Amino acid sequence: MARKIIIDTDPGQDDAVAILLALASRELDVLGITTVAGNVPLDLTTRNARIVCEIADRPGVRVFAGCDRPLTRKLVTAEYVHGKSGLDGIALFEPTMPLQSAHAVDFLIETLRREAPGTVTLCPLGPLTNIATAFTRAPDIVDRVAEIVLMGGAYFEVGNVTPAAEFNIYVDPEAADIVFRAGAPLVVVPLDVTHKALTSRAWIEQLRAMGTRVGNAVAGLTDFFERFDMAKYGSQGAPLHDACVIGYLLKPELFTGRHINVTIETAGEFTTGMTVADWWRVTGREPNAMFLGGIDRDGFYAILTERLARL
Ligand code: RIB
Ligand code: CA
């Protein structure tokens, strides 16, 4: 029986790789893709999600547009990383697959109420605005969530948008606070992991050698996406942040972490958006998250490459 998931996303090149990996994996049943404003505004993340589904030749995937701004704050985007389109690196096109008419938040609520409790996993890959809005509007769905596996936060790796905060949490700290306090089983894939999941020139050439639409698209996307991190960190490749979430669903044994308390800073003068991870368990606060710290990078790229070759 395939694992039912909903991907909540702000594509973004790394979101695109996560979506492709999920669509290529028969272990996963993607009930829907919900889009949120983040890397780029909502109209672009929503268009981009449909572009990615069409590149995967999966026009039947249901895509729902969600919240176009954070709960209370002004939207902060990341065109400086992802390009103006949010999906720079490939020849873009106007998707023809339909956009569902329901709002993403209504889809989240209705799906969690319809599916059996404990059978649907949420995979947020962007700011947590949609998830927090759904939990606030329909608190009854929280206990029905099987697990939330999200990309966000940082501890030993510190922030990537401020010295203290990672982008997905920073854009909507109030939403993150609601999700982290909700009580649903939570797995956090932070920069501590994703900065170890770097692409390489050899891998990008391997993708091109596939000679497929997907291989070429992922090569183009990561070729563009890596330039920012290589310039900023002097690293040798791009961190495929969001794809690590799907990698965890497929092979959790490739990851290590600790079940600890993670609290979101929402009022720090310099630290707003920080995931205050109690890695050494000094606060006495109740553990609420499996906070990951390690990844078998080569094992992750092995399954990622094998699955992308299937599309
Ligand atoms: O900080 C990395 C996260 O922010 C990733 O999800 C990336 O897509 C951006 O949304
Ligand atoms: Ca993202």
UniProtKB/TrEMBL annotation:
Keywords: Glycosidase, Hydrolase. It comes from the Bacteria. GO terms for molecular function: hydrolase activity. This is Nucleoside hydrolase. Residues 5-301 form the Inosine/uridine-preferring nucleoside hydrolase domain.
